[in-house]
Amino acid sequence: MGGVSDKAAGWYPDPDGENRQRYWDGDSWTEYFTPIAPRQAELHGSSTASADYPYLVASRSGPHPDLMAPPVPVGSTRGWPAAPAQAGDGETQEFSGGGKRSRASVWALIAASVLVVMLVVGVGWWAFGPEGAPVDDPTGAGTTQPTDGGETVTAELDLGTSTSATVPQAGLWVGMLTLDADATILVDARGERREDDLRIAIVPEGGGDPVAANDDRDATLAMGGSGLDPLAAATLTAGTYEVRVDERNSAEVTFDIAATEVTDALTSGDTVDVQAAEDGFWAGSLTVTGAGATAIDVTAVPTSDNDEPDAVILVIGNGDREYINDDRDADSRDPLLEQDLAAGTWVVLVFDYHGRSLVAEVTATTP
Fold first, then answer.
1. How high does pLDDT run on average in the chain?
2. Is the alpha carbon torsion for 175, 180, 186, 190 positive or negative?
3. Region 265-365: CATH code
4. Is the pTM higher than 0.85?
5. Contact 298/362 with Cβ under 8 angstroms?
């Protein structure tokens, strides 16, 4: 295998014609190989082969393989260089044993291995280190509230009245709500600013699992507030409850909150005339006793204040369960909600999509 007998030890294109480099130890070809790959961003191929490797012109014929890299000896003339070790598409890196090895060759192989390990560690740190780690969305869904670490403000929350309050920074506001009798209630909180991201949880006095909770009512359901404002519904037995309010991003927030008893009711098969004020809603309770689909049908009535009504149905159950329907189909803006609702008491809200006043007829059918 001649052609480079006057060359110093180093990596050179394999004279056998493979798309790889072979190590010349200064005396003869060894059995160490490495795939050819560029050390820099520039590409080398058949069009640059003559300029890159003029000493091969006399010993080879035919096109030069793509992605060739010039040999780069490192250290002494008999030392092992940090040879490229990247395979091309569909290729497998090849390192063959056997043949003649010098002591310098062994040490150079160890050095090359260390360089490869350092490269892998560096790439891993860049890809998965702190600067590249994903960051949780601070406004994502969820109603888990802090239990320590911030100030807790406690106040009375009377049924049927609206109260102004402030959530401390990284803290919690707790409204003590006392019910003299069983009741179905709505708790509506609205931040002073549209970017305020409040959360509500209704908990029995003394703690325990929330009986109802809500984070965002969604922009579609703003009803005069912000889509980030919470709206919770619950059917509660007589007693005292903690209505806990916090801000998801731990900001200090001034807000208005009201706890309202739902007194209107829907009875299966009956039609009820309802009205919703501007930026408001009508609320009624619906009791489901059996399994199967429940249907709630709303027919909006045009008025002088709203000649093109666009009614929406929102159904809320204990916990954080919600179902919504806007238009029943492409030809009608009147909503029709058909859903398998679990047994229990649900709160049905009817309002106008655009926040206008609304007059409508509501019919519910339960199993």
1. 76
2. negative
3. 2.60.120.380
4. no
5. yes
